[in-house]
Specification:
Strand content: 35-45%
Strand order of the largest sheet: 6-5-4-3-2-1-29
Distance between the termini: 84 Å
CATH topology of the domain at 227-382: Methylamine Dehydrogenase, Chain H
CATH class of the domain at 227-382: Mainly Beta
Number of strands: 29
CATH architecture of the domain at 227-382: 7 Propeller
Helix content: under 10%
CATH superfamily of the domain at 227-382: YVTN repeat-like/Quinoprotein amine dehydrogenase
Length: 382
């Protein structure tokens, strides 16, 4: 018993000494926001619809040279995204509800700094903006970036003109059932019509309608409709049809000019091999190359991903290559984009949200980054 009492006393002395000892100094913490360098042409901005909940879409930023994630931009509910010409700002047009899926609706455009990935400014919009799969033409900057055009669908079709200098809504333009906003020239906006025509609205310096004109039909929506996910190339826009014809529209003048369409498939392939996915065409103007995900399937399968990427010369219209995709491992390709610099990278997103980095000359796979978000749908570009 005495030994036990001595043991307890000894423990008590040790605890007392420990209590009297000075605690170690705490390290000083400094919280800050890290800044990214100036955006590289080889950064991929991957639109992730976040299909598990659809209320928390985002844009993932991935460095295609260093093969690393750089961060993400929050997107809200079914956002539409546009990039400023200098790639320093990502405009996200989105919707929030006060009760998550329901409640008071607020439509807003948020301008995110691509160095901090934080919103720096927002402008509240009329609660009618179009909600749907991403497109280069759901929201667009004017050529001088004085205005932002936002496509509306309620189901009445129109677009909102946002004055970026004042932060005010300049007005709304009814589009007679034609949809999307394709910026052309300083103050022109074109929309696609179900008749196969383009409606072109000219705005004045205040952002109000000054005139409009309807083009001749350039495709037949009943026989062979086009994908609305076209690719802007300078003053031109390239569209693909469901059966694989290439349509090019020049918007440099007040009246759109339409080049003769040309086929991507041979007579034997026609109707069997088709473009497919959510972002179906990428064009490098300097190299005169067109890239498209293709698959062997029938009518109504245009949303399925591609099992090959086909490469064409945009001047001779000759097919240069067919690059198979390891669809069993990565999934079929649903989106393609090529960087616009002199030494480009070809990016592709698959159905498994894998981002592929490809050599644009040989199709060689340089890197595969799996799980870039929940459901990569689109690659944003200026």
């Amino acid at each position: 018993m005495r030994a036990r009492r001595l043991g307890v006393a000894s423990v008590g002395l040790l605890l007392g000494a420990a209590a009297m000892a000075e605690p170690p100094p705490l390290a000083t913490e400094h919280l800050d926001v890290a800044h990214l360098p100036n955006p590289s042409p080889h950064w991929a901005f991957v639109y992730d619809m976040a299909s598990a909940n659809q209320t928390d879409a985002r844009v993932w930023i991935f460095d295609g040279d260093r093969y690393e994630h750089l961060g993400q931009i929050d997107g809200g509910y079914w956002p539409s995204v546009a990039m400023s010409a200098d790639r320093r700002t990502t405009a996200v047009v989105t919707t929030y509800f006060s009760r998550g899926w329901h409640g008071t609706r607020t439509d807003v455009v948020e301008f995110n700094d691509n160095s901090t990935l934080l919103p720096t400014r927002e402008i509240v919009l009329p609660p009618k903006r179009m909600q749907g799969p991403p497109s280069a033409f759901a929201v667009a900057y004017s050529a001088d970036e004085r205005f932002l055009y936002v496509s509306n669908l309620t189901p009445a079709a129109s677009f909102t003109v946002v004055n970026l200098a004042t932060g005010a809504i300049a007005g709304e333009v009814e589009t007679d059932g034609c949809v999307l906003v394709i910026a052309g020239g300083a103050r022109r906006v074109s929309s696609l019509c179900e008749s196969g025509r383009l409606l072109t609205v000219t705005l004045d310096e205040a952002g109000h309608e000054a005139g409009r004109a309807l083009s001749k039909p350039f495709f037949d929506a009943d026989k062979d409709p086009i994908f609305v996910q076209g690719q802007p190339v300078g003053s031109r826009v390239v569209f693909l049809s469901f059966l694989g014809d290439v349509y090019t529209v020049d918007l440099s003048a007040a009246e759109p000019a339409f080049a003769a369409p040309w086929p991507m498939t041979t007579a034997a392939e026609h109707g069997h091999w088709r473009p497919s996915g959510n972002q179906v065409v990428a064009v490098h103007a300097g190299r005169k190359r067109l890239y498209a995900p293709m698959h062997a399937a029938g009518e109504g399968m245009h949303k399925e991903g591609g099992t090959e990427i086909w490469v064409f010369d945009t001047e001779s219209h000759q097919r240069l290559a067919r690059w198979p995709i390891d669809a069993k491992r990565y999934g079929p390709v649903v989106a393609v984009q090529i960087t616009s610099d002199e030494h480009p990278l070809l990016f592709a997103v698959t159905e498994t949200a894998t981002l592929l980095v490809l050599d644009p000359d040989t199709g060689r796979l340089r890197h595969a980054e799996e799980k870039v978000g929940q459901s990569g749908w689109y690659l944003v570009s200026p």
